[in-house]
Design goal:
alpha/beta; Rossmann fold; 40% helix; disordered N terminus
Amino acid sequence: MASFRTRLALLGSAAALTAGALAPAQLVGAQPAAAAEYDWVALGDSYTAGVIPAAGDIFEYPRDGCERTDRSYPQVIDRDLGSLIELTNVSCGAATIEDVTFRAQEPIGRNVPGFPEDPDYPFPPVPPQSEAVRAGTDVITVGVGGNTLGFADILFKCLELGSGSGGVGTPCRDALADDIPAKLTKVSSDHDQMLAKLHERAPHAKILAVGYPTVIPEDTSKCRYNDVKHFYSITPGDLDWLRQDVLEPLNKAIEKSTEANDAASFVNLYDSTRNHSVCDAGQWVEGILDSDDRPALVHPNARGHRNAADHVTSAILNAIAPN
C-alpha cells in the first residue's frame, strides 16, 4: 500500500492539474489539453450509477436508461481528480454481475413498478460493461452483486408481505430465507468469473471491488413502520433478517471473492456508513421515498456518494502510486 505521503503527493498533482485546467485561456495559451496520466473505467449497478434524483441529475442525453447522475461517486471523483485520470463510466442501474461480464443489458431507466412509467422506456440494449475495459486501462472500479442476489425483488416482496402485519413477525424471512444461500453462492461464483474476465481484458489494471454501504441500522427500532421515508411496511424483524442474513453476507461474498484475486482489492463502504443508514437522522441512503417524496427505493443519496467517493479515491490513489 502506498504511503500517506505518496497519496498526498498524488492528490497535490491532481489539484495542480485541475487548477491548470481552470486557468483562463489567455494565461495558458492555445496549447492542447494534456492527456490524462491514468485511464479509469467505472463499472457497476445503480449504487454506482446514482439513478435516483437524490443522487443528482442525469447528465447524458439522449438517455440510454442507465441513469448515471452527476453526483454519483464516479462523477464526483472525476471532478476531484481533474485531468489526473480519464474516466469512462459505463455503470448502469439494475445491472447484474453477468451484465458487467458478458451479457448485453436492457436498461430500465426509471420505469419502476408502482411509480409513473418512464416516458422513454423501453431503451435499446447496452453492451456488456466489461467491453469498456481495454488492455491499457490502469484502474477498474466495480460495484455490483445486489441485482444478482435479487435484492430489489426481495425488497418488494418484503413490502408486500409486511403490509397489514402491524409491524409484527417476520413474514418475509419465513417466505424467502431458504432461497438466500443459493443466491449468495451465485453471487460468489459470478463475481469470481467477472474478476477473471476483467483481468484478462486489462492484465496490468488494478481492480477495485466496491462494497455496499450500511442500509439497515443495527437498532431497527429507529425504523418507523409504515413510514415511506424509511422501509414502509417491512417489519422490524424482517429488517434484522435482511441486514444479518442478506446484506451483510452479500458484502462478505464480494469481499471474499476479491481477496482471492491477486489483481483486486476490496473497498469497504459498510463500516464508514454504520450511523448513516436509511433510518438514521444523518441518512446517506434514502428510504422508499426520499425527503422530497420522490422514488428512491433504498439508494444512496449525494451524501452517500460523497462518502463513497472519498474511500474510492483513496483506493485509486493507492492503486496508481509508485511502489
